[in-house]
Amino acid sequence: MTELGMELLSAASAGRPELLRQLLDVGADLDFVHPQFGNSPLYNATYADQVSSVAFLLSRGARPDLVLNLHSPVDGRWQRGVTALMFARSPEATQLLLEAESSVHHTSESGATALLHAVARSQLEIVRLLLQAGADPTTRTLDGRCASDLIDENISFYQSLVKDQPTPPAILEKTARLEAIKQLLIAERP
Fold first, then answer.
1. Residue 95 half-sphere exposure, CB side, CA atoms within 13 Å?
2. Which residues are paired to 184 by β-bridges?
């Protein structure tokens, strides 16, 4: 069963819905969780932005709010209590997860929500979708930071990179996106 699960993880990451179907038809566990790294097929498809795989897995009954404890093979970091929605890379994948009733209110062990993850990645359209779905922009992490705090920290970081130099277009674009997100958050405050 572990071998089928590992193949399912790979097929989800690679965006191969037909292979996913074949693996599920021969008994692969739809919500298989990697024994060492903690990822699931839906997480892999979401993280890799394989929208067709996200849609297929959800159509077959993948649990959108399956809680995962991810262990990074790169830096050894743990992210405990996370869901696939926290790692959505596109509005399309986000919308599919929201339609499958993934909770915008779920918090990880650190207190982070999908909204905080999207803000940290400067994903304007995803932030907009999460706010429309009822995400709370005032939710704070365990260390006391809310979405606006993350924006201010990121803007300060980008500004510190350039100091007295001309600002590169990529940083101008990133800061403009963060400012637009901040305006969205202000408009949503109770």
1. 7
2. none
Regarding beta strands 68-71 and 78-82, do their DSSP bridges make them parallel or antiparallel, or are they unpaired? antiparallel
Task: Report pLDDT for 190.
Answer: 63
User: By the 8 A CB rule, do 92 and 55 touch?
Assistant: no
Residue that the structure tokens 């809680």 belong to: 67
What the block records as the tokens of 64 is: 């959108």
Q: Indicate the residue type of 120.
A: A
Residue with tokens 């400067």: 122
Q: What's the angle, vertex CA 153, arms to CA 149 and CA 155, rounded to 5? A: 115
* Integer Cα distance of 42 and 115 in angstroms: 19
Helices (H), 83-168: 91-99, 114-120, 124-132, 147-162
pTM over 0.90: yes
**The two three-digit tokens of residue 156, written as one number:** 């300060």
CA angle 144/148/149 to nearest 5° reads 45
What Rg, from alpha-carbon coordinates, does the chain have?
Answer: 18
As beta bridge partners, residue 78 has: 71
**CB contact at 8 A, 151 and 178:** yes
State pLDDT tens for residues 96-144: 999 999 999 999 999 999 999 999 999 999 999 999 999 999 999 999 9
3-state secondary structure of 81: strand
